[in-house]
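Subject: Sanity check before I submit

Could someone independently write out the structure tokens for this chain? I want to compare against mine line by line before I put it in a report. The sequence has 654 residues.
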Amino acid sequence: MSLTTSPVFGTRVKSCTECRQQKLRCDASKDYSQPCSRCSRMRLNCVVLKSFKRTKKPTRAQLQAELDRLKQQLITSDDFEPNCTAPDPLMLPVSTGGHGNVPGDTSNNSQPGGKPFEARISRVAANDPVFLPQNTFTPDPDCQFTSSGLTMTCCQALDDFELGSNQIDDCFSLFSLHYSPKLYIFDSLMDPNACYAQCPLLFWTIVVTGARKYSKDPTILTLLGPKVIELAARSMFSHTERLPTIQAYLLLCIWPMPVDTMHKDISPVLSGAMLSLAISNGLHVQGMGQDFSRTTLEHNENECIYRANLWVLCTVSSQCTAISHGLPPPIIFDTFDLKLSQEQQLAIVPFKVRFRKKMSQTLASCVLELGRCVQLIDESGGASSVKSMIEISTWQFTQMESECPDQFSRLHLLCARLQIQGFHFFLGPLHRDDSSLVKLYLLACSVIEMAVGLDETENFSSSATAHSQKMLVLAPCTVLRIAKSHLAPVLDIERGRRAYFDNILLFRKISIQDSDLASRTTVILTQLWTSRNAFKNSDGTTDSLLLLCRSRLSMSVVFDCFWRWRREFAGQQTPYKDTQNETRAAPNQLVPSLGHPNGGTESSNHLLSSLSPNGSFPDYDWLATLDVPLDFDGCFQPEGQIPVLDTVSYEVLT
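---
Independent answer below. Compare away.
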């Protein structure tokens, strides 16, 4: 350990400069003969300086000035060849790590594990150039960057969790490959040091998002996830760097942290906070948002484009989050919807994002209107109003098919139609349209088949959004309910069975933890498929098309299945009554035996006998939980494709 030139007097042990800079507790020995544990572990030079003063983080204005200086230096440098294209100044790396280094300082360049940022991105682009978005700057191998243009990623710490430079680089690389290309609000080349200096919340959110599929260290997601959520809650009332905070909230809504129950999912809360922050900062108004600022803002075309894309993504994400949770979606008026200037204002937004906005706005309006119609379904003409609204809404989405820019947009369009036509389940037995239910069955199969196809060609499961996962729960629940109804003789049961279990296999690939929602969905879907009693009513009749849960809009189909699963496999009494027993016409007395793809069937009574719901069931509003016993090891293995489930304790999704 390096000592200071002047002795350190006093009984109190001073912290080393590295720990003082990070505001961490230092366990240096009193005689300073040995380095502290943190410096030893991170291979840092443990030095105690009596005259050391902690360096504050640079302001945004200082960072921008340094970026401009670096850009000018790169252009005028003799080492930079004329045939090399200078990168965008927003993409230039700036060293503003946790050690307080100013840009251009190379004092930490000898840090073990640190890699030049441009070299790392160049390696990533060479390995998988397909995922790189447009306008990506790839350094020419013949070009030599100046020393000030190269930065080494610094180690960072969040509370008591420390992350090395190599791990940070890997997580940022994974984020750049699999996640940021789906959005248009992130630079192609992001320097982790500059990102941390600008907004620690955004930095840690990018790290934890990239760590979702980080096989080298799966513990990063488990340990860092709760800390990022706490940091997001603390940042909600911060008055600095609002736009990066909105970016972080957007990522946490699209790819939320894995949870074991839906009750713990804070996506609806974050989406509401994100939308409120966006409006309070004037993102819903085209331009720089001068009317929402206390200082004079200079017009910047790149800033206007960035704000427009961020706003569109915020509205789409908020609406998708609400709809996928069975909540009323928000509809906000903005200047991008004005007909007089719509073409000019949306010209700066990519066509894919514009299409998603149009589809999301249409879906939100249709779902809200159908929700109003369902509330009046018991009145005279109420069922006819629901049918008419379903037909009108379906026609609107059919007109959009020719505008789909890619297969992912086509999948979202099919999911939107699935949600609209799912309102047929709200109709009573006397008003159901069998032909519409058959079409709904085929549509649900098509949604699953397209998702499975995209996974084979585009690796859909590696970065599936939360909204897509919810839709892939709605689709098999729709197939299940219609396949177990009186329509089974006229359906292609084999196609539905194949799609149903392909969906289960897809969720196995989507799952990122053993006990997350995707993993537990496979348990519920497998048990419901073989169940003969899940849709049995209190009077002994069976009607799989009857909805008891009717307040979650199109997602009522899913939540109703969850409650029926609780009743059979947990012994929990349902809080709903068979309100339509008196008006039910010709109920299904026999449930078709669906079985598994291998032709085998098994009564759910055998599964029920192995359950022991002895644990308590916390009251999460109406979303109660249950425990599946530890000795449950899965149900079936159709065609040898579905592996045996891990022997863990499962709770209900909600």
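---
OP: Matches mine. For the report I'm noting this point. The chain has 21 helices and four strands.
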